[in-house]
């Protein structure tokens, strides 16, 4: 597997897509009321098109996770609009939002969050079954994904029997099981050693380059900057786009 | 989601086993009490159903064999025979007596047999033809007191030889024993008295009509149709003791529900983060609720599967060590318990389901 340090952002000119897949307009999220109110996200605007890897950098408490939760439909904004694939998330009922997340979004978490009682294969199968696949379809697709991510020999292993890198690759396979157009990753390399982290970064970039998905990553990991299409810094509830380093262009 | 429910349960095998054992014990307790309830009612009425009588005629105010005392003059038999529609009249003499068996004082309900109309239900050892100085005892009494055919016991100072052992006369607190009518009258001190007259009506004549005629003929007697008389006798236990069994059954059901509820609640609490992840990735709430429900049903049904045969074993053991234990098991009880177990599981799942409903999917972003 290629390491992240050897990778660069895809320099091939891509056809500009006028329709952003992810679009946030004037999104604000306030926690608490009155004097204790905290504006975790303050009038943020963000767009991400298919085939883009958007990196959000920032220290702990900067609002990165809140932002991802808003994009993922897990939090309701205090104000503003969040559109994903043309659907206004703030207008959806909780049940519709749940269906939307299942079909349109893939999640990768810092702590993998695999179901401890299920094997690697079953963790991926479960999402496919939730998505309406038959048992045999789910098994076949889950196997294909795990083999693709180099886990063909670990199908029947429980999460506790896998290394951190392997768990994160299972989580990535789970996120991609239903082929969502948007993948949201929160500190995907945060709990991994250097080598495993590079493997995961490589896989994320592959999703963008080969499958033209939109990947939004919140991370401290500067290595991801090398493969990102656009980089934002998050701080005090605001989002600021950083200029890409010349070498990356 | 069935896979997840099953695997989650098996993740902590020891706790799961303890929960299933707890539920099985509750199932055994409830089935044991149900069999005791049914057995009691069945045993209490077996002999009375066997007696050939369409009507039991006793002194006004007396209505059963146990609560109340009925004493009627023997000469009352002829007026009954004279009533139109009466086919046959025989006498019933019987009372609870103290007997001495192997030097110990015991109680038995002594009945004087007149013809074949009020003899024992079924002879299982020895013979049925009684003579003075002989007695037929109940199978349960024989096992309890280790009495065999040919041995003797003493009632009211008279020694009686056991010539037969019968089945169908166990009333739990005491058992029926049979002697000749003359011997019974002597032992009970009822020379010119009887306890009840047993009346058989002519074919085609309504029993209620004869009962009315009898009560109109004498203001000192009451005539009870057979079923009414059985119901009067059952009410002794039905009104006083059996409701206690029902209360204990309810307690058993509550214990089972609590065991299932605690097990699934603990499991749900431990796996809150995983439920949060499932919510985050888009699993609909109803599926998560169904997972908790499946876990509760899994615990409950396994407890039922183990508990039903275990209850048969416990009843067999109880009847071996306590012969008068009047248990009657039936598939009906097991199926009733199955429904009850499903109800317990569904009810027990309410708390975990409410907990799942409150789980925040944002937990997925935390460690």
Give a structural overview.
The complex is a heterodimer of chains A (249) and B (367). Chain A is α/β, with parallel strands linked by helices and 249 residues long. Chain A has one domain (21-242): Rossmann fold (3-Layer(aba) Sandwich). Helix content of chain A is 30%, strand content 24%. Chain A has 6 helices and 10 strands; from the N terminus they run E-E-E-H-E-E-H-E-H-H-H-E-H-E-E-E. In chain A, the strands form 2 sheets. A 6-stranded mixed β-sheet of chain A has the order 6-7-8-3-9-10, sandwiched between helices. Chain A has a 4-stranded antiparallel β-sheet with strand order 2-1-4-5, with helices on one face. In chain A, strand 9 and strand 10 form a beta hairpin. In chain A, helix 3 (120-130) runs parallel beside helix 5 and helix 5 runs parallel beside helix 6 (194-211). The longest helix of chain A is centred in the last third of the chain and has 18 residues, at 194-211. Chain A is globular. The two termini of chain A are 23 Å apart. Chain B has 367 residues and is α+β, with helices and mostly antiparallel strands. Chain B is 54% helix and 21% strand. Chain B has helices at residues 2-11, 13-50, 77-82, 139-145, 181-188, 207-217, 226-240, 242-270, 272-281, 285-321, 331-348, 350-358, and strands spanning 55-59, 72-73, 86-101, 104-113, 122-126, 134-138, 152-155, 158-167, 175-180, 193-194, 196-201, 221-225. In chain B, strands 1, 3, 4, 5, 6, 7, 8, 9, 11 and 12 form a 10-stranded mixed β-sheet that branches. In chain B, strands 2-10 form a two-stranded antiparallel ribbon. In chain B, strand 7 (152-155) and strand 8 (158-167) form a beta hairpin. In chain B, helix 2 runs antiparallel to helix 7 (226-240), helix 2 packs antiparallel against helix 11 and helix 8 packs across helix 11. The longest helix of chain B has 38 residues, at 13-50. Chain B starts with a helix and ends in a 9-residue tail after the last helix. The model of chain B has no long low-confidence stretch (mean pLDDT 91). The chains are: A alpha/beta (249), B alpha+beta (367). Chain A binds chain B through residues 65, 68-69, 72, 74-75, 94-95, 98-103, 105, 107, 109-111, 113, 115-118, 122, 126-127, 129-130, 174-175, 186, and chain B through 1, 3-4, 7-8, 10-11, 271, 273-274, 277-285, 287, 361-362, 364-367.
């Amino acid at each position: 597997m290629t390491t992240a340090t050897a990778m660069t952002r895809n320099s091939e000119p891509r056809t500009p897509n006028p329709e952003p897949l992810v679009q946030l307009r004037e999104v604000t999220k306030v926690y608490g009321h009155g004097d204790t109110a905290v504006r975790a996200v303050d009038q943020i605007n963000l767009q991400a098109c298919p085939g883009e890897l958007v990196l959000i950098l920032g220290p702990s408490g900067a609002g990165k996770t809140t932002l991802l939760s808003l994009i993922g439909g897990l939090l309701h904004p205090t104000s503003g609009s969040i559109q994903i694939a043309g659907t206004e998330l703030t207008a959806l009922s909780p049940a519709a939002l749940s269906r939307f997340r299942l079909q349109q979004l893939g999640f990768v978490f810092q702590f993998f969050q695999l179901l401890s009682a299920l094997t690697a294969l079953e963790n991926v199968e479960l999402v496919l079954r939730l998505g309406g696949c038959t048992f045999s379809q789910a098994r076949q697709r889950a196997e294909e994904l795990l083999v693709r991510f180099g886990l063909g020999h670990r199908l029947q292993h429980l999460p506790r029997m896998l290394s951190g890198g392997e768990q994160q690759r299972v989580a990535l396979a789970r996120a991609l099981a239903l082929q969502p157009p948007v993948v949201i990753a929160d500190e995907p390399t945060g709990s991994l050693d250097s080598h495993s982290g590079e493997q995961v970064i490589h896989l994320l970039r592959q999703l963008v380059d080969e499958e033209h998905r939109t990947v939004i990553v919140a991370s401290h990991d500067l290595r991801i900057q090398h493969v990102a299409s656009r980089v934002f810094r998050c701080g005090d509830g605001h989002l600021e786009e950083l200029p890409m380093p010349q070498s990356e262009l | 989601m069935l896979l997840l429910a099953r695997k989650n349960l098996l993740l902590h095998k020891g706790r799961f086993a303890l929960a299933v054992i707890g539920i099985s014990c509750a199932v055994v307790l409830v089935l044991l009490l149900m069999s005791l309830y049914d057995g009691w009612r069945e045993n209490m009425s077996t002999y009375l159903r066997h007696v050939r009588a369409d009507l039991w005629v006793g002194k006004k105010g007396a209505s059963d064999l146990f609560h109340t005392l009925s004493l009627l003059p023997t000469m009352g038999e002829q007026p009954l025979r004279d009533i139109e529609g009466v086919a046959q009249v025989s006498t019933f003499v019987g009372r609870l007596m103290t007997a001495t068996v192997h030097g110990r004082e015991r109680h038995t309900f002594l009945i004087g047999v007149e013809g074949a109309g009020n003899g024992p239900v079924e002879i299982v050892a020895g013979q049925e033809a009684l003579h003075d100085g002989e007695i037929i005892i109940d199978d349960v009494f024989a096992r309890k007191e280790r009495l065999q055919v040919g041995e003797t016991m003493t009632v009211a100072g008279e020694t009686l030889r056991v010539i037969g052992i019968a089945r169908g006369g166990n009333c739990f607190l005491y058992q029926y024993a049979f002697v000749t009518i003359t011997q019974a009258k002597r032992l009970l001190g009822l020379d010119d008295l009887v306890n009840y007259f047993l009346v058989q009506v002519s074919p085609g004549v309504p029993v209620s009509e004869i009962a009315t005629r009898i009560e109109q003929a004498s203001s000192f007697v009451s005539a009870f149709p057979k079923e009414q008389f059985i119901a009067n006798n059952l009410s002794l236990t039905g009104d006083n003791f059996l409701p206690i069994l029902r209360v204990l059954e309810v307690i058993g059901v509550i214990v089972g529900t609590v065991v299932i509820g605690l097990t699934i609640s603990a499991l749900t609490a431990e796996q809150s983060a995983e439920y949060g992840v499932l919510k985050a990735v888009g699993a609909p709430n109803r599926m998560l609720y169904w997972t908790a429900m499946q876990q509760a049903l899994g615990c409950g049904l396994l407890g039922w599967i183990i508990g039903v045969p275990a209850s048969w074993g416990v009843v067999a053991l109880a009847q071996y060590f306590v012969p008068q234990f009047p248990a009657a098991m039936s598939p009906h009880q097991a199926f009733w318990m199955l429904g009850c177990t499903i109800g317990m599981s569904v009810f027990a799942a309410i708390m975990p389901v409410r907990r799942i409903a409150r789980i925040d999917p944002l937990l997925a972003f935390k460690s």
